Amino acid sequence: MRAGPIWPVTLECGDLILRPIRYRDKKEWTQVRARNSQWLAPWEASNPIPGGGLPDYRNMVRSLNIQAAQGTALPFLITERTPGYRSPVIVGQLTVSSIVWGSALMATLGYWVDQARAGHGIAPTAVAMATDHCFQTLGLHRMEINIRPENGPSLRVVEKLGFRDEGYRPRFLHINGEWADHRTFALTSEEVPDGLLPRWLASRGYEAD
Question: Fewest beta carbons less than 10 Å away: which of 28, 89, 102, 158?
């Protein structure tokens, strides 16, 4: 059973910062999403209800904030300190969702990254940061990531981080207008006793701060 509120929280690793999504991020978030619309479209969650759509930005943030207050989600923006900008810029989004307490102590993680910053280690670093926070600070035991078999970049992320492939889930989630198959990857806290982020950074020749 959790003790006390789990949100808001900000996580940092070098120039990468995971912070809460805010209403005032709408303009920048919308610009990043518009620039990446074709890049993200094949992997976008959709509404299976006929004629149903996805919430607009304000309703999305409101829903995420409610879930965070209830202790069932951690809605982060992935931001990066960038030369020439006064504030860290949005380079993606990461949400820890479906947090289950009690005897399960598990959660699901999803993310996207700006195509212009793909291939720079942002996604695996952000996933490692969030996973370590969930394991070490919140006391969760299991983190799960579900990925379309065709999504090569995301498959490389979990491979780099050492998530276990737990198998195939036919028609698991409604994605881009249809029920789509997924592969499930997972990691438990016992598998990374010293933290996932230090292991990931060491594999790249860095040390955790």
Answer: 102
Angle at which helices 152-161 and 122-132 cross, to 10° = 50
Residue position matching structure tokens 């996933």: 127
> What CATH code is carried by the domain that includes residue 157?
3.40.630.30
Range of the domain at 91: 11-203
Peptide bond preceding 8: is omega within 30 degrees of 0, i.e. cis? yes
Mean per-residue pLDDT, 68-83: 96
Q: pTM for the full model?
A: 0.94
DSSP-assigned states of every residue in 42-93: GG-B---STT-----HHHHHHHHHHHHHTTS-EEEEEEE--TT-SSPEEEEE
Give the total number of structural domains in the chain: 1
Q: If 0-12 CB within 10 Å is exposed, 13-18 middle and 19+ buried, where does residue 128 land?
A: buried
